[in-house]
Amino acid sequence: VVDRLRSETDGRVPFSVEFSPPRDAAAEARLWRAVREFETMRPAFVSMTYGAGGSTRDRTVRVTGQLAQETTLLPVAHLTAVSHSVEELRAMVGAYADCGIRNILVLRGDPPGDPLGEWQRHPQGVEYADELVRLVRDLGDFHVGVASFPEGHYRSPDLEHDTKFLVAKLRAGAEYSITQMFFDIEHYLRLRDRVAAFDAEQGAKPIIPEIMPITSLKSVRKMVELSGSALPTELEQRLAKAAGDGPDENRAAVREVGIEAASQLGERLIAEGAPGLHFITLNFARATSEVLANLGLGAARV
Ligand code: FAD
Asked: How confident is the model at residue 116 (pLDDT cuts 50, 70, 90)?
């Protein structure tokens, strides 16, 4: 991933996209339509999230393996520690390696059922993501990334604690981090400064900002609640105005505001020297490709 971020030579900032494991055959067909569309835009990498508690494990491994074997894309497999023993985690990494995946985004995950509920370590599992980083690195030649939280992780008592344990994951061998979504660039800039001030060497590792192009007010409110990110009042008001008062939100108007906001955020991140832009796609290509077009990214290269 880090090589890909650095090897972009045409002066454009690299971008990447996040997919989620499909739940059924129809969702899988939709995912593949998005995959093929993004493939023409040459993202630096694509990532595949890991279902809570490994709920869609077999399908996730199969589809991520197909990304490695049947496309020109570089897949990054997310892996969480939830409900897994160390032995199972090793087997998962082995299954990814067997289908040619060498890039893993290591996460602790959230408790199944109630993501905001009490975290329960598997009796033979790991407690924090830094242990999983070491475990994956010890298993072989894997390139590991981790999560970072511009507004602090919701379980962190303060930003100092949050920075300390992000740096611990980087020191354990992670080569980069991908942030939680955020809507105010100041959070990203402050995170970057905090990590650099805490440990200059780890601060030099790429912090890839995650962008969520909003297409529904209802679903972004839910996502924000679970992510610990704040939707700035001014943006929320614009989205609410666009959504209207009817029983169904005016999705086209919400989308327009969401795409404009994501494009502006992307533009500012590029100006601030972000190493790449990572987009949450929800397995749809359209919203992200509109943002990419606004930013002059993603068009086929000559
Ligand atoms: P950790 O780094 O372990 O941190 C968890 C909390 O513990 C933090 O508050 C941290 O500060 C604290 N902490 C860490 N180490 C210590 C220590 N040694 N002592 C005391 N406190 C400590 N979830 C999924 O289920 N599937 C996914 O695919 C997925 N993908 C994600 C992708 C990105 C880019 C991001 C940002 C999040 C993703 N998540 C995913 C959500 C993630 O699993 C949750 O946010 C989870 O609550 C935190 O995971 P972590 O890896 O940051 O945990």
From this structure: confident
Q: Is 156 in the pocket of ligand 1 (CB under 6 A)?
A: yes
State whether the beta carbon of 223 lies less than 6 angstroms from ligand 1: no
Report pTM.
Answer: 0.97
Pocket test for ligand 1, best of 57, 128, 162, 187 (most atoms within 8 A of CB): 128
**Which ligand 1 atom is at minimum distance from the Cα of 227?**
45
Mean pLDDT for all residues in the chain: 94
Burial 181-205 (b: 16+ CB within 10 A, else e): bbbbbebbbebbebbeeebeebbeb
Report the nearest-CA residue for atom 26 of ligand 1.
50
Q: ipTM of the assembly?
A: 0.99
Amino acid at 235: L
Residues 22-36 have a mean pLDDT of 95
Is the CB–ligand 1 distance for residue 119 below 6 Å? no
Mutate to test the pocket of ligand 1, among 16, 108, 169, 194 (most ligand atoms within 8 A of CB): 108
From the CA of 284, how far away is ligand 1's center (Å)? 25
The Cα–Cα gap between 294 and 299 comes to 11
Q: What was the pLDDT predicted at 302?
A: 45
Is there a contact between 104 and 136 (Cβ–Cβ < 8 Å)?
A: yes
